[in-house]
Amino acid sequence: MKIASFNINGIKARAPALLDWLKEAEPDVALLQEIKSTDENFPRSLFEDIGYNVETHGQKGFNGVAILSKLPLEDVRRQLPGDPADEQARWIEATVIGKKALRVCCLYLPNGNPAPGPKYDYKLAWMDRLKARAKALLQTEEPALMAGDYNVIPQPEDAANPQIWTKDALFLPQTRKKFHEILNLGYTDALRAITQEPGIYTFWDYQAGAWKKNNGIRIDHFLLTPQCADLLLDCQIDKEVREREKPSDHVPIWVELDL
DNA sequence: ATGGTCGTGGGACGA
């Protein structure tokens, strides 16, 4: 089973490129972030017409996440638990019904800039809630994964120029510490289970020729529970997507599981 | 050295 994660940066602008990529990459499940659309305005029939079940959790203008799945989805839950007052659409999870059930969580972790400030406080609080959900997910002892745009650069080798990120919310010590606390609960960073190679990125800013200069960062991640990590066959990034017409500033990352 | 690019929605803000 192939499961992909892709921050599409707006469904309206990205629908053609997303359809092209889905048709050639053929993921069984695609976890989307930054749909920037309400549930009503999401063009679900575009994806239903090519065989996907569609579950969205959107809001007007910003954020928004969605799950596309060729296999049936059950027990869909929206919103990360832990703060009923949080109105930002950044989390959706569901069970994919294949030969064996797989719980998939699709997340768009807050950017947190500028730091320090209220946006960074929100990011850290959100990461605390993520850690709590991650713990509960481990206790089910079922294969499960949490994937998406974490807005976290885990290590210096995950940035082309780590020095320019030292005061950025994506790379501050506190951010990295919380990310590693979640990993250390027992999760596997799927890409790092496949390769230790530096210089693998999932995001290049639109500005200042970042793509041309390969000034990228690795911020989109797949975290796997032990039962899911046991099924891991491969994890790759579809870098060539960034070169195309009207690209997102992120590229897809995917895992192949023995399921 | 400086400012630089997108997306949404139809202005200002988020990234």
Features:
globular; 6-stranded mixed β-sheet; Deoxyribonuclease I, Chain A; alpha+beta; 14 strands; DNA-binding; 259 residues
How would you sum up this structure in a few lines?
The protein is α+β, with helices and mostly antiparallel strands and 259 residues long. The chain has helices at residues 11-25, 44-48, 118-139, 173-183, 190-194, 226-229; strands spanning 2-7, 29-33, 53-57, 65-69, 73-78, 91-97, 101-108, 144-149, 188-189, 203-204, 216-217, 220-224, 232-237, 253-257.
Verbal overview:
The structure is a single chain. The protein contains 6 helices and 14 strands. It is of the alpha+beta class and 259 residues long. It has a single domain (2-257), classed as Deoxyribonuclease I, Chain A. A 6-stranded mixed beta sheet has the order 3-4-2-1-14-13. The chain has a 6-stranded mixed beta sheet with strand order 5-6-7-8-12-9. Strand 3 (53-57) and strand 4 form a beta hairpin. The longest helix has 22 residues, at 118-139. It is globular and about 45 Å long. The N and C termini lie close together (5 Å). It binds one DNA strand of 15 nucleotides through residues 9-10, 12-14, 34, 36-37, 60-63, 111, 113, 151, 205-210, 248-249.
- The poorly predicted ranges are none
CATH architecture descriptor: 4-Layer Sandwich
How many helices? The count is 6
Largest sheet: 6 strands, mixed
Strand order of the largest sheet: 3-4-2-1-14-13
Computed structural class:
alpha+beta
Q: What radius of gyration results from the CA coordinates?
A: 17 Å
> Whole-Å distance between the termini?
5 Å
By CATH reckoning, the class would read Alpha Beta
Order of helices and strands: EHEHEEEEEHEHEHEEEHEE
